[in-house]
Amino acid sequence: MKYCRFQLNGQAQYGLVEAVAGRDTILRILLTAPEEAEGDVEGLRTRRIEPIPLEEAGLLAPVRPSKIVCVGRNYKGHAAELGNEVPKEPLLFFKPSSSLLGPGGVVRRPKTSERVDYEGELGVVMGKICYKPGDDEDVRSYILGYTCLNDITARDLQKKDGQWTRAKGCDTFCPVGPMVADGLDPWAGVGVETRVNGVVRQQGNTRDFIFTLDQMIRYIAQAMTLFPGDLIATGTPEGVGPLVAGDVVEVSVEGVGTLRNSVADE
Fold first, then answer.
1. Which end of the chain has less neighbouring CB within 10 Å, N or C?
2. In what helix (H) or strand (E) does residue 19 lie, and over which residues does it extend?
């Protein structure tokens, strides 16, 4: 199952995406938002529409989270390239919902920063309320699906401020999309790749997580309730680097697709 969120006749809709003659195509719209499905998107009522190829749709960010919880330095290579120690526990920070940006949107480099970096990641979308799950519970049952996420970061502000609110939270600093897909297995391994102007800059695999996805979810949910639709950014592999105006940055997640955004100065 794959779904997207897009503009149709001036309204935001969720659409089910299927392959038609090798092209991802929106064939039906969901009559209920996926985050309201209690984890069962396939059981929701739908309505057939005229087929729309995904690349021709006016795509929006496919999530509407109450919060975006991010796990920092979750790949050893990324921690090392920035001169940081490997964390002993998941390192958490937030991005505000106002930082969300859809596929095709423009990442704005703020005037307050001289270095804005890409960080391609696997995003996890929650499907059910999760708070202090039992040790014997399978956290997969709480997951609605997976998506591509770019944790845009003002690196100089991150170093200057100490805490990361400004560095991670500027408007347009959380591109997400193009779809949400189920059926991925981050425990077995999912490839994550970032390209800038067509050149590969990051290649990682979730097999290399320092903290597995169930460890992340359990750690977060010990402190706060995760609601349906909430988004978890799982960390970026090594190879982060700066973006400049005119760049096109792409984040691909195996089994999901490719999130593409351009870059401009504020």
1. C
2. strand 11-20
* Contact yes or no for 264/107 (Cβ under 8 A): yes
Other CB atoms within 10 Å distance of the CB of residue 138: 10
Strand pairing of 231-233 and 68-72? Answer: parallel
Residue 79 has pLDDT above 90, yes or no: no
Q: What is the pLDDT of residues 174-192, one digit of tens each?
A: 999 999 999 999 999 999 9
Coil, strand, or helix at residue 35? Answer: helix
Q: Which of 240, 252, 259, 234 is nearest to 192 (CA)?
A: 252
| Residue 9, token pair as written in the block | 């006749």
* Average pLDDT of span 97-118: 98
Query: 39 versus 241: which is more confidently predicted?
Result: 241
d(CA 159, CA 173): 17
What average pLDDT is seen over the chain? 96
Alpha helices in 138-188 (DSSP H): 155-161, 165-169
Of 178, 180, 194, nearest to 252 by C-alpha is: 194
- Which residues fall within 8 angstroms of residue 137, CB to CB, at 6 or more apart? none
Name residue, tokens 């903290």. Answer: 211
Helix (H) or strand (E) holding 158: helix 155-161
Strand pairing category for 248-253 and 257-265:
antiparallel
Token couple for 184:
């991925």
d(CA 188, CA 192): 13
Mean pLDDT of 119-147: 96
Q: What is the pLDDT of residues 50-68, one digit of tens each?
A: 999 999 999 999 999 999 9
CA distance 80 to 84: 6
Neighbouring CB atoms inside 10 A of 45's CB total: 9
